Amino acid sequence: MFISQQSITARMHLRVCCLMLALLLAACSSMPTPPTKPEQSIVNQADDAATEVRVSQNLNELLSQVSQAQEIPLQSLESGFVDAKTIPSIRKLVLPPSGTFKKNWLAYRKRFIEPVRLKAGKAFWEENQAFLSQVEQDSGVPAEIIVAIIGIETIYGRQTGNFRVKDVLSTLAFSYPETPNKPAREQLFKDQLKELILLCWTEAGGKLPAKNNIQSVNSARFSACLNQNSSYAGAIGLPQFMPSSIRSFAIDGDGDGKIDLKQSPKDAIASVGNFMKKHGWQTGMPISFPVQANAILAANDLADGEPQLKHTVQELIEKGILTKQQGDLQSGGVEPNSKAFIVDLPYPDKDGTDQVQYFVGLNNFLSIVQYNRSYFYAQSVAEFAEALGYKNQSVVPVDSTSKTINRTSASEKPKHKKSHTKKKPKAS
């Protein structure tokens, strides 16, 4: 049962008043404060107290917006956030690297494609082999890709984060560090916080819009959902889905009537397969091709850092970046009119000199980028999958029609020849 409106409002007001008092005392006191070991919330300094007050006020406004939009009683939402607090440490974790930092593809790859994860990946595959095969058949996404993603994300549930998700999203929504993209990032996390509220409301049995009916809502489940652990960016479970992705792409893989990405490997597997399918994964198509050694300069000229399919494979063949075989669907490549883009993976060599490894990213590479917007990440998934046995080449069923055509005389050739051509991929 939810706490009464009067009780909630009083507690929220008391919280703000206490924070304001702490702010005044910290601003006026000239006596040094004995050092204490900081916990998740720090209010013994003026700026921290001011932050807490601001976050609390902005959070209340957001809860009011959700309450009005979804016709959920405000007291029901306030009860779930009455103990919400900021986490100063994650404000440092989301900061961009310093200006002297050099991106290092080789170091990144070594971190994720290593014996511990690969061994765990093989064990995870063996434990879930039958279900992985089923999801591969249903979604078209190879089992190796699904296993690679979950392994890179959390080592199959070993590292899912230890921050309360409502605290993470509240902090980043209303107290993002001072960076050039601060407004856009805060808006992103505000949206995710709203998605979390709606996710937890429905998981607790509520309907949307609620129409002020909370009889079917389990308050304990609502609170538990808001209090579940996440990464420092608010990602949840084995596959590290953000709340919006859980609502849009997560699937009940084990058929128990609920989606549990933290404890159910089947739910995680099915959800990753569905996410990749919905983001344009093309069954039987490769992910990327290495650039020819004698075409590094040509690749450099086309590398602009934009994950958009803008060049045809035929164009890249003509520039010497790809081989003719890579433009042949029946030889493990793709069709010449398929779209691609240049992937640049920088790293410093032993002397500190900047170097770059280049790949040609295809449609399926771009699908992985939609999961995590990083070239390093996408290429790591591809190579992790290859280490598990994935063949980075086209797998096209033999077309019996083509055999018939070859035996048909020129005058008898059908006007419409069956083709293996996939739909033209769209840049996103």
Question: Over all CA atoms, what is the radius of gyration?
Answer: 26 Å
Unreliable runs: 1-5, 18-45, 400-428
End-to-end gap? 45 Å
The side-by-side strand order for the widest beta sheet comes to 3-6-5-4
Task: State the order of secondary-structure elements, H for helix, E for strand.
Answer: HHHHHHHHEHHHEHHEHEHEEHHH
Mean pLDDT, rounded to whole units?
87
Instruction: Say how many strands there are.
Output: 6
Broad shape: globular
Structural class: alpha+beta
Main sheet properties: 4 strands, antiparallel
Helix content: 40-55%
Count of discrete alpha- or pi-helical segments spanning 4 or more residues: 18
Strand content: 5-15%
Question: What's this, in brief?
Answer:
By secondary structure, the protein is of the alpha+beta class.
Molecular structure report:
Helices cover 49% and strands 6% of the residues. The chain contains 18 helices and 6 strands. By secondary structure, the chain is of the alpha+beta class. Helix 7 (129-139) packs parallel to helix 13 and helix 8 crosses helix 17. Strand 5 (339-348) and strand 6 (354-361) form a beta hairpin. It is globular, with a radius of gyration of 26 Å. The strands form 2 sheets. It has a 4-stranded antiparallel beta sheet. Strands 1-2 form a two-stranded antiparallel ribbon. It has helices spanning 5-28, 46-70, 74-81, 88-93, 105-112, 115-127, 129-139, 143-154, 165-174, 182-203, 219-226, 243-249, 265-278, 296-302, 313-318, 363-371, 375-387, 400-406, and strands spanning 163-164, 229-230, 288-290, 311-312, 339-348, 354-361. The two termini are 45 Å apart. Mean pLDDT is 87; it is low at 1-5, 18-45 and 400-428.
